[in-house]
Structure formats: C-alpha cells, structure tokens
Write a structure and sequence with these properties.
- This protein has 13 helices and 21 strands.
- It is of the alpha/beta class.
- It has four domains: 161 residues, Rossmann fold; 111 residues, Transcription Regulator spoIIAA (2-Layer Sandwich); 94 residues, Transcription Regulator spoIIAA (2-Layer Sandwich), CATH 3.30.750; 57 residues, OB fold (Dihydrolipoamide Acetyltransferase, E2P), CATH 2.40.50.140.
- The strands form six sheets. The protein has a six-stranded parallel beta sheet with strand order 3-2-4-5-6-7, sandwiched between helices.
- A hairpin with a 6-residue loop joins strand 17 and strand 18.
- Helix 8 runs parallel beside helix 9 and helix 9 runs parallel beside helix 11.
- The protein is globular.
Length: 466
Amino acid sequence: MTSRITAEELSLQRGFSDKVSELLSSRESPPTAYVHTFGCQQNVSDGEKIKGMLAYMGYGFCDSPEGADLVIFNTCAVRENAEDRVFGNLGALKHNKNARPDMIIGVCGCMVEQEHIVKRIKRSFPHVDMVFGTNALHTLPELLYRQLTERKREFYIPKNDGVIAEGLPIRRESKIKASVPIMYGCNNFCSYCIVPYVRGRERSRELSDIISEVESAVKNGAREILLLGQNVNSYGKDLGTSFPELLRRINAIDGEFKICYMSSHPKDATRELVDTIAKCEKVTRHFHLPVQSGSNRILELMNRHYTREDYLRITEYIREKIPDAALTSDVIVGFPGETYEEFGETLSLIREVKYDSLYTFIFSPRKGTKAAAMDDPVSAEEKGKWFRELLDVQSEIGRGMYEKYVGKTLRVLCEGTGRSKDTLLTGHTAQDVIVDFDGGKELIGRFVNVKIEQAFDWILVGKTIE
C-alpha cells in the first residue's frame, strides 16, 4: 500500500535540517558535498532532491570526492556495470577516509534495495557510514544529523510498497530543463528487470501537485518539462485519472515550453494517448516504445504483456495520426533461450517499423529476476555477432530516417554548446532529434529555427534562420 509522507513527518525532517544547519554554521569554513548519481533520469531527479536538502542544510558542492566533507553515491541497479562502478568508487574512497576520518560517506538508491548488495557493503566497505533506500530519501536530514552527532554506521532500507514525499527542496541541474516525476515504481515485473523489486509498486503523484511543480518550473525559466516514471503510460490508474489527461492539463499551462516524457510501456500506449499528443502542440512528436523483441515467444518469456501484432498496430496508428513523429525503441539481444530465427523476427520488425534510432543491449542477468535463472545456451561470442548484425541493420535505416530532414526548417530548443564549442550550439527538435547549429551563446534557452543541411546516423547539422 502506498504511503504518502505526512506533513508532520516532513516537518520533523525540516527540524533535523535546521539542527544540521546549526551544527555546520559553527565550522570555520562551509562544508562541501560531492553527490554522484548513476543510472536513469529518475535517479537524476532523486539526486536533485538530495542536493536540494543538502543546500538547505548549508552544504556547498564540489566536483570530486577529494576534499569533500560528505560524499553520497546515488546508485542504479539496472545493469551490472553500474554496480561495478559504484564498488570501484567506494573502494577508492577508503584512502580518503583514512586521511580524513571525519568525512561522511553515504550510499543510496536502487542498488542498496538488494539484500546481497547491503551485505557486501557491510562486509567489504567498513568506511561507508550510512546506507539508505529509495523510500528513505526524505529522511536524509535525520540520518545526517545522527552521523554528525553519534558517528554510528546506519543502514536504513524500509521495506514497503513505496512512498511519495511532496515538498522536498530541489536543486535542479539545469535552468532550461526541469525533470518532474509523475509516478514511481512499476507493476509489470518483466522477467529480466529488477526495477519493481527496488522501486516498489506503481504509485502516482496527485495531479494538482504535478501541475504546481510544472507551473513553478516554467515560471523560473524552464523550457523543457520532462515527465518521469518507470511507466508513465500507467500514470493515474490508482487515482482515477490518466496520462493523456495529465498531458492535456500541462499543455494548457501558459508559457513557451515543450513537454517530454519517459519511460513508456507499449502495453499502455493507447489510441487516446496518440490522439492527445496529436492535439497538444507542446508535447514532443517522439514515441519511445521499448519493444525488446520481435518474437512472440520471447515476448511471453519476458512477460511483456503484448504481442508483435499489438505493437505493430500502435506504431501504425502513430504513423497515421502523426506522420512527422519519430519512433525509437529498446532491444535486448540474446535473451535466455532465444534462437537465431527468433532474433531474425526482431530484425524484420525493425525493418518494418523503421526506427529513427535504437538503444540496444546484450542480455545481462540481474540477480533476483526470473530471467537470471533461465537456461541460456547461446554463447556470448554468438550474441556479439547478432548484436553487430542488428547495429548494421539499424545504421542503414537510421541514415535514411535522418536524411528526410535535410532541407527542412525545424524548431529547436537551444540547450548549450555543441561538439565544437567555439562555433556550434546544440539542441533537440520536436521529434527529440539532436541538432548542432551555428549561433551565439545568447540563443541558449530559446527556441530557434534551424535549416537542416546535413544528416548523420544520430545527429543533424544546420544553420539558424530568422
């Protein structure tokens, strides 16, 4: 059952924030914190809240652990290499801790929601002071106060279906873009995915709270609103509303900005959603629908809750209703038991849909998921060959999809400097395609018209026009 953090609990945490602030104010120099976030945009959003709470308590921020009074790693559990990076970084901090015993080291996020990870930290990284889970984020002031006053190791990972904590301070990473979580958790239990186990069950924020946050972000200069959730298409099912309704409400907010969202699940991508996006001028014409496989047998083993035919019906409807829409997807190569013939079904689907781009992965088992226990007879070498074949197919399709933009004038949100910082700016189109173009830095944060002159596999290049 979802627990919404009460006003009393939040007031209690603000009290701890004030106590920490008082402790830190007595120091000769302001303390500094290093916060490093691994993984998805949801983690990045959590990291902004961590920094917001720390800033409220009086911490400044630095770009490396060297010399930091507080180090927090906000972790990801989706892929093994992310966990390996965290452990490598924690190991390197041992020398810092030996040199400066008063520094505080914390680990939070999805990774520490796994029991075997917590046991490893307890056993192998005694210099880590505090570990807290995704549902304990709002208790950081209390945990930090206890570290500063008691100096005892603490592991706080409450086991529940998930919480929602409104009103936490936020220190956004960008003045142009604002990430706004609309829901947390996942109910899908795809057989390869650890997310439902570390993020809890689906729970939606109240529509009014989301609208208020978006209005505030736009008022403060945000030109892109990124709506976040493990499955945004499921938003509102627990509240009696829906994701299309949320998009309509945000689209009606005054101001010049665009609306993006991630991540989507094909089983919940409805015709109503497509029709809504077609009518909402601020919503990007980009549909990221992770198909994962083109084989119905593999989709069933993955527990994806749709068939190849279901998927093609919704992509065909998107092409019909929004002809200029961009389609992207995720694909897993070498799922346990997948044959080359079934992999060929994925290639044929890719050729039929004609994606603008793909995010492709070779299957990586995650401990605790059903797929990790499945027989997997295909060698890593063979999967590597399949993977390269897929990249070749998509590369050819992608070039054609991007070349259609050459000669057209596109509206682009200028987000910063490009690959050549002296001469180029960069931004994204309404289709979420990256564009590099000429212009001065005064254009950053503005929407500009760019005539496309060149197309590559993953980027467009053009010139600004009046």
